[in-house]
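Teaching assistant's notes for section 4

Start the section by putting this record on the projector. Ask students to predict, before seeing the second block, whether biotin carboxylase will look compact or extended. Collect guesses on the board.
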Amino acid sequence: MIESVLVANRGEIARRVIRTARRLGIRAIAVYSEADADLPFVAEADEAVCIGPANPAQSYRDTEAVLAAAKKTKAAAIHPGYGFLSENADFARTVVENGLVWIGPDPDAITAMGDKINARNLMGLSGVPVAAGTDHPVADIEHAVAAAAGIGYPIMVKAAAGGGGMGMAVAEDEDGLRAEYDKIKGFAERMFGDGSVLLERYFPRVRHIEVQILGLADGRVVALGERECSVQRRNQKVAEESPSPAVSPEQRAALCAAAVRAGEAVNYRNAGTVECLLDPATGEFFFLEMNTRLQVEHPITELVYGVDLVEEQFRAASGLAPNFDPDALTPRGHAIELRVNAEDPKRFLPGPGAISVWTEPTGEGVRVDSGYVAGNMVTPFYDSLMAKLIVFGADRAEAIERAKAAVEGFVIEGPKKNLPFFAELLENPEFVSGDYDTGIVGRMR
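Reveal the predicted structure now:
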C-alpha cells in the first residue's frame, strides 16, 4: 500500500478520501485555497498546504501548484477526487512522469474516453450499444443539418469535450438546430477549448442509468451494479438511488456486461463509471459517456455492495488485490443519495453564505458526507454542494421513509439550501412509484 497521498480537491470529497486514507494508515495531505482555510478537510488532514487564492484556476486547477505541494510534502501519490484535475490526462501523465502514483486510470484511458465522439466510436466497435448519431465532429451548420436529417428530430446537440451536463441542447427541428449549433459551439470553445460538436438521437422520455466499474490490479474489470440518476436539474444530477427501480435482472446483467466491455476496451484500471440512457418504452439502453474518476454518487454503491470504493482505488493503484471477492459480489438493500446544495429549492440558483447552524441527521441507515460545519462560509467560488445525505434501507420503501426523516432532521441556517425540494421529491407520487424519468424535476416545477 502507498504510504502517503495528496488529495487534490476540497470539501466533502477531500474529507471522504482523507477518512479512508487515515483508516488504512496512509498519511493524508490536503491542499487548499485561501478561501477554504477554515474548512474541516484542512484540519483533518495529517498535513495541509495552501496553494493559492480562491480562484480555482490559481489553486485547485493549477497543476504546477499541486505538484509543488506534492514534492514539498514528499507525497507518494495524488488522488484527484472528482472535478478539477480528475479527468485531465495531461496532468495525470505529469504526475506519473514525476514518479508519483496516480490514483485513477491510465492517462491514455482518460484521453480515449474524454472525447465523446471518440468514445462513441470506440464503444460501438467494442459491442457496446450506442444511439444513432455522428461519428465525427460536424464541421459547420450545413453539415449538421444534413446529418440531422439522417438521424431524425428531435436531436441532441452536444459539445464533444463537454461533461457534467454542460454543453448540451435539444433541437426540435431544423430551425432549432440552426439556433442551438452556434451556441453550443461557442460555449464549448470558451469552456473546454474545443468547439467540436456532435449530434445524437434525443429521447423525449429517458432514464439515466450508470454502472460502477472497477479495474483491478490483475487486469480484470468488474461491475458493481447500477445507479439511477434521472432526478436532474439543468442536466445535472441532484438525487440518485441504487438499484434502479426501472432495471430488471436481465437488463442489469446486460448493462453490467456492456460496462465491463467498455472498461476492457481501454484497459481500464481503478474506479470509473459507464453512463447510459435507458428507453423505458423499449427497454433498450445506449452508451452515453464514461467518467474516468470516482463519481459524486459512489456512496450508494458502497452501501449496497459493502465495498469502500476509495479503499479499492488505493489498492488498485498500489498493485494489490481487492478487499472483496470479485466473483461473489452480492447487492443488498436499497440506497438513496440526496445532494444538499447551497441553492434555492425552487429555481436552483446558488445562494452562498455563512453557516450559522449545521445539524446533521442521525439514525439507522443514515450517512452524511459533508464538507462544512457551523461557522464555515459557503463561498461563490466553487460548486454549491455542501453535503451528500445518503440513506440505506432493507428495501426501497424503507430507504424512502428514512430519507424523509433524515431530510427533516438536517438543519442548515445561513446559506440557501435545497432540502425543501427533497422533502417534496420524496412525497412525489411519480418518484415514490419508481416510474419516473429525467423530466421529473421539470414536472414538479
